Amino acid sequence: MSVVYDCAREPDRSDGLAAAASAVRAGRLVVIPTDTVYGIGADAFSSTAVRALLTAKNRGPDMPVGVLVGSWSTIDGLVLSVPRSARQLIEAFWPGDVSIVLPHAPSLSWDLGNTSGTVMIRMPLHPVAIELLREVGPMAVSSANVSGQPPAATADEAKSQLGESVAVYLDGGPSGEPVPSTIVDLSGDEPVVLREGAVSVAAISEALGSEVRMS
């Protein structure tokens, strides 16, 4: 049975974070608030949990899941290398609304979908999300909605779509504007913006010191 915790109140917040951490470690799904919209998350290193996440969203592996981290340094263990351009974006926008695509470390045993050897990583600007991520490590996270339906801006909206497929819902109040993160692909020779979201292409170009093109 799903449990909803009101993270605006103690001890619900502490109890909720503990329950969510336990659920993630057990390979179950949780819903968390982020600085964009609510996210449905799972242990990034559990292929079974990630498949359950995709099933809950009614989505296939052709739309791979990104990874959220709780600190800048976590990225070093997840990718093949961290180029200067990635460091520049991390320093300028993390925690915040920029997702970075890089070749993942070949030693990692995970299955996030059809990623072609890359991983999309972001550090969210939300205290509840960051606290959970620092407790359990990197999580595979996607928007908390059934594919094709509006993204959830509240825990109640997420629960109305995802129901009992999620073990723990962490209610952090209404999310901010439902604007997705900006995705910057750094896996090739030149940076490419795959999606312009909350951070403009002009701001990305300024941070990198050169003009960046859209895909």
UniProtKB/TrEMBL annotation:
Coiled coil: none annotated. Keywords: ATP-binding, Cytoplasm, Nucleotide-binding, Nucleotidyltransferase, Transferase, tRNA processing. One of its GO terms (biological process) is tRNA processing. Gene3D superfamilies: DHBP synthase. InterPro entries: DHBP_synth_RibB-like_a/b_dom, Sua5-like_dom, TC-AMP_synthase_SUA5. Pfam families: Sua5_yciO_yrdC. It catalyses: L-threonine + hydrogencarbonate + ATP = L-threonylcarbamoyladenylate + diphosphate + H2O. PROSITE patterns: YRDC (PS51163). Residues 14-199 form the YrdC-like domain. Its EC number is 2.7.7.87. One of its GO terms (molecular function) is double-stranded RNA binding. It is found in: Cytoplasm. GO terms for cellular component: cytoplasm. Belongs to the SUA5 family. This is L-threonylcarbamoyladenylate synthase. It comes from Actinophytocola algeriensis.
